């Protein structure tokens, strides 16, 4: 039976009211107890045509669903103008906030949360799938086939039109990009000015940190990780910067800087700097390598410097390694000879060397070939580390066995040193396994001494000859 309550407010104070037919309320109705509406289906049991205010919680029972009217299926739309353009085929979207996803039509699986998130435009409406935009105006102009973007943060990715496959997290991250794709920007203003206007351009840029890669416009395949890492580079490509302010100037291409402030001023190309402040003096120089904390070049415009160590520098076309006051250098574009510090001001306890002609005469220069690894004595514990087997138990050969070598036998050198009663000559040594070694360059010093002794003997012989010839 139908019931109607007229223009006067009616208060129902019973414990419960059961209505088994239509109920039309023309004015206020206050119900102090339960209201049980028995409809014949689970849909449209209560139809509210105007505003509804709830002063307490609204609970949806287990197994029930909150359904939002739209042309698509499985959409949740909350807020004025939210998902207003959803058409048939636009399914399984979640849009929450004023005008969120307003102009999306057949998009599937999108999540837009926040006022203006995924808003779109009135012209080319969004049909792309799988976009996520969370934050005020995040992804605000997504349109057309733009798809699979993840944009989290206010104004994050808010200029992307048809770009796809990008990740931006942070305020204004990737905030200028329109048509490019495959970017990762995490941090406030990360990749903030990058913009590839051509649809489908794969940027390949990854920027993580405050202002990381902020100035990149059209540079591609850069990886910038750390606060202000690569923050001034605009069109440089294939650069890698890891560390706070690493590679922070407007650099060229193919640079690698790992460490806080590493390569901080580089504008050149193809430099590699690893270590805190490594290569921080390089500006326009190219193809330099600096490994170690504060390892550097000797001049800002150096090229082809190789420096390994802490707090030391290398000149152009030099390989320098060591530590302060003990630097070894090879000038590889000239005589390729190694040099090292030998300044008298750095030395004490200076004495004349004793190894000379007698020592040299005790040495036996030989020719030889190296043994194959499998031919080494399997019972010699000091050689065991040189006999490495593969999965089948065969000894892997690490030696070149077909080249004739010229040199000395380390054991014979040791015997000559013992004869000379010298134990501190660095031309002979043992490694950590007990394998004996020699350093060929160290024999220059005994040879100099031997020549001096021969020269003295020759002078004496010449003097005697002169005397005899009278």
Distance between termini? Answer: 157 Å
Approximate shape: elongated
Low-confidence stretches: none
Binned, the helix content reads under 10%
Beta-strand share of residues? 15-25%
Based on DSSP secondary structure assignment, what is the total number of beta strands? Answer: 29
Instruction: Find the structural class using helix and strand composition.
Output: mainly beta
Radius of gyration: 41 Å
Q: Number of helical runs?
A: 3
Q: Could you give a short account of the major beta sheet?
A: 17 strands, mixed
Residue-averaged pLDDT: 91
How would you describe this structure to a colleague?
This protein has 470 residues and is mostly beta strands. Among the domains are: 3-37, no CATH class; 357-369 and 404-450, no CATH class. The chain has helices at residues 357-362, 410-420, 444-469, and strands spanning 3-5, 10-12, 16-19, 23-25, 29-31, 34-37, 76-78, 94-96, 111-113, 132-134, 150-152, 167-169, 184-186, 206-208, 223-225, 240-242, 256-258, 272-274, 289-291, 296-297, 306-309, 313-314, 318-323, 326-331, 338-340, 366-368, 405-407, 428-430, 436-438. The chain has a 17-stranded mixed β-sheet, with no helix packed on it. The longest helix has 26 residues, at 444-469. The model has no long low-confidence stretch (mean pLDDT 91).
């Amino acid at each position: 039976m139908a019931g109607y309550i007229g223009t006067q407010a009616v208060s129902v104070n019973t414990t419960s009211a059961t209505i088994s037919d239509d109920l039309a309320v023309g004015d206020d109705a206050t119900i102090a107890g339960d209201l049980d509406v028995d409809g014949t289906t689970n849909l449209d049991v209560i139809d509210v045509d105007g505003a509804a205010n709830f002063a307490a919680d609204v609970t949806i029972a287990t197994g029930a669903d909150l359904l939002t009217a739209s042309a698509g299926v499985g959409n949740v739309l909350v807020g004025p103008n939210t998902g207003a353009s959803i058409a048939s085929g636009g399914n399984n979207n979640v849009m929450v906030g004023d005008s969120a996803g307003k102009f999306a039509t057949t998009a599937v699986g999108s999540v837009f949360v926040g006022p203006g998130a995924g808003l779109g435009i009135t012209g080319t409406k969004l049909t792309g799938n799988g976009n996520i935009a969370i934050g005020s105006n995040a992804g605000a102009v997504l349109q057309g086939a733009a798809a699979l973007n993840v944009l989290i943060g206010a104004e994050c990715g808010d200029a992307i039109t048809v770009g796809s496959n990008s990740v931006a997290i942070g305020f204004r991250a990737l905030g200028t990009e329109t048509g490019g794709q495959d970017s990762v920007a995490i941090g406030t203003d990360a990749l903030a000015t990058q913009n590839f206007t051509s649809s489908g351009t794969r940027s390949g840029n990854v920027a993580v940190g405050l202002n990381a890669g902020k100035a990149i416009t059209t540079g591609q395949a850069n990886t910038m990780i750390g606060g202000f890492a690569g923050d001034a580079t605009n069109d440089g490509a294939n650069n890698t910067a890891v560390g706070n302010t690493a590679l922070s100037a407007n650099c060229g291409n193919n640079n690698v800087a790992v460490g806080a402030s590493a390569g901080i001023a580089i504008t050149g190309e193809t430099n590699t700097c690893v270590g805190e402040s490594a290569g921080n003096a390089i500006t326009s120089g190219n193809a330099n390598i600096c490994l170690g904390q504060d390892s550097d070049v000797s001049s800002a415009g150096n090229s082809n410097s190789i420096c390994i160590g802490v707090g030391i520098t290398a000149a152009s076309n030099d390989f320098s390694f060591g530590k302060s006051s003990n630097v070894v250098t090879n000038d590889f574009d000239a005589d390729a000879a190694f040099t090292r510090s030998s300044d008298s001001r750095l030395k004490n306890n200076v004495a004349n060397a004793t190894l000379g002609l007698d020592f040299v005469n005790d040495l036996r220069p030989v020719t030889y070939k190296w043994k194959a690894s499998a031919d080494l004595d399997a019972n010699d514990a000091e050689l065991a580390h040189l006999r490495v087997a593969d999965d089948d138990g065969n000894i892997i050969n690490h030696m070149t066995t077909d080249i004739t070598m010229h040199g000395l036998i380390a054991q014979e050198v040791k015997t000559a040193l013992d004869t000379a009663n010298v134990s501190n000559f660095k031309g002979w040594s043992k490694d950590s396994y007990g394998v004996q070694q020699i350093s060929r360059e160290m024999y220059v010093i005994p040879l100099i001494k031997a020549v001096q002794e021969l020269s003295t003997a020759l002078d004496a012989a010449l003097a005697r000859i002169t005397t005899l010839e009278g």
